[in-house]
Design brief:
With about 325 residues, this protein is mainly alpha-helical. It contains 14 helices and five strands. A three-stranded parallel β-sheet has the order 1-2-3, sandwiched between helices. Strand 1, helix 1 and strand 2 form a beta-alpha-beta unit. The chain is globular, with a radius of gyration of 22 Å.
Length: about 325
């Protein structure tokens, strides 16, 4: 039997090129090898996104984005977390096996408390129970589907380790393998995608290139990439140029070599390098953008795709909850 890979996608904003290389492409590659279960973690997003229209739009856009990028919903079970009520039943069951101390140690919660202390505010200011219990909901997402492997970014590894702890505590209590203990998979080899200002591309830095930006906007953003003041004639170092680092992600080996040569020879200004970057990015992204627009134009079909995914996911989830309740004497 194939092993199971599962990951959650938090719909908190529009997808950008950093997400594409850091999360989407690696997860789609993994889906070739594993039995993949990928979902939109809309309840996790609720902790921070309180505007209903915004959340609802984010959910659809992020789902459409993954489909446009090549997620095959026949192969991958693709669903919304909110469509699986067993998630919330398992969350409730797991709270009885999760020590408060474990939650106190979660990085995201600790950082929020630290922030408050630095501002000389109440340590609990602005912290809701959704943030505090975030790792339990995430453990339920993972443990519900017998996941072997959980591809995540570095910041989420601690949460997967907490899911391991919680699963082990359940299994230990009932002296049986009720929940499968998952492993985190961090994509170490993925290059850091530089943003417009040279820092790592991130929504929170405001330096991101949206994955589905219309052609004109894409070009404009690329022209905004910060460069140094080297003149056209000066030889330039490709390795320290974020234009080149971005180029590498989209260009063929031959194209990379050719552009690196032009950098080193001098005679090429930053403007020209940016045009060349725009050309290769647009070449790769324009078919995705077209698919994205098609999917977004038909929300009923998108909802139906997600509902089919939920139909496939629910029996698996229900079996896990049944197993747990039986072991716990609540059957
Ligand atoms: N917390 C993850 C993030 O912020 C999203 C997520 C929710 C998730 N549930 C999950 C990831 C389960 C992996 C497995 O990116």
């Amino acid at each position: 039997m194939k092993k199971i890979a599962l990951t959650g996608i938090k719909p908190t904003g529009i997808l950008h090129i950093g997400n594409y290389f850091g999360a989407i492409k690696p997860a789609l590659a993994l889906a070739q090898e594993y039995d993949a279960r990928y979902f939109i973690a809309d309840y996790h997003a609720l902790n921070t996104v309180k505007n209903a229209q915004e959340l609802s739009a984010n959910i659809r856009e992020v789902a459409a984005g993954w489909l446009a990028a090549g997620l095959d919903p026949e192969r991958v079970i693709f669903y919304r977390q909110s469509s699986i009520p067993e998630t919330f039943e398992l969350t409730a069951l797991l709270t009885a096996f999760t020590s408060k101390g474990l939650m106190n140690r979660a990085h995201a919660y600790k950082a929020a408390v630290q922030d408050n202390l630095e501002k000389q505010d109440d340590p609990d200011a602005g912290i809701n129970m959704g943030l505090f219990t975030y790792p339990i909901l995430m453990a339920a997402d993972i443990l519900l589907f017998d996941s072997d492997l959980v591809p995540v970014g570095k910041d989420q590894v601690q949460h997967v380790e907490m899911a391991q702890d919680i699963a082990q505590s359940v299994n230990f209590t009932y002296k049986a393998d009720i929940l499968k203990v998952p492993q985190a998979a961090v994509q170490e080899s993925v290059a850091v995608v530089p943003g417009l200002d040279g820092r790592k591309m991130s929504k929170s830095y405001g330096n991101a290139i949206p994955l589905f930006a219309p052609e004109k906007q894409l070009r404009k953003l690329i022209l905004r990439i910060v460069t140094n003041s080297q003149g056209i004639e000066e030889p330039k170092d490709p390795e320290t140029s974020q234009i080149f680092l971005l180029y590498r992600l989209f260009a063929t080996a031959q194209e990379q070599e050719a552009l690196a040569k032009r950098y080193r020879e001098g005679g090429m200004g930053w403007g020209e390098a940016k045009e060349e970057l725009f050309r290769v990015i647009n070449r790769e992204l324009s078919p995705l953008r077209t698919r994205f627009e098609e999917i977004m134009a038909n929300p009923a079909a998108l909802d139906a795709t997600l509902a089919r995914g939920a139909d496939r996911a629910r029996p698996i989830a229900a079996a896990t909850v049944r197993r747990f309740r039986k072991a716990a004497g609540i059957d």
